[in-house]
Amino acid sequence: MALKIRMSRGGAKKRPFYRIVVADSRMPRDGRFIEKLGTYNPLLPKDHADRLRLDVERAQHWVAQGALPSDRVARFLDDAGVLTRAPRNNPQKGQPGAKAQERLAAIEQAKRDAEEAAAAAAEEAAAAAAAPAEEAPVEEAPAEEAPAEEAPAEVSEEESKG
Questions:
Q1: Domain count of the fold of the chain
Q2: Are residues 23 and 69 in the same domain?
Q3: In the chain, N or C: fewer CB atoms in 10 Å?
Q4: Which helix (H) or strand (E) holds 118?
């Protein structure tokens, strides 16, 4: 028979009250139990004396008999000094799920795309603003080309002399 030290729920709807009991692990949560070790009232303030009542000697006896406490009861027993609970660390606890991560990635990609589009638009605007300044030298360029056309003509005159 596998023994568990666990909480059995009582109280009214939305007004929980728990008995800390030793029970066979095959029994239902609120079902038959072997011994009642104490009570827990989560509605009371944490510093209130009646929030947790626990028979520490009987709890030690049942732990020595091989009864395994539930996670919450193990915290209570650790606070009472009956046993030492190994600290737990879940680095994945604060991370969002897979779908939420996909949504975040899509949002970040959309932001990057919007920033790139804004940068491209800014470059085009800068190019458009600089383009009229570039067009003015282009208009002057044909005036410079005119002497260039005369130069080959002069060469041809020299060839005709020679």
A1: 2
A2: yes
A3: C
A4: helix 98-161
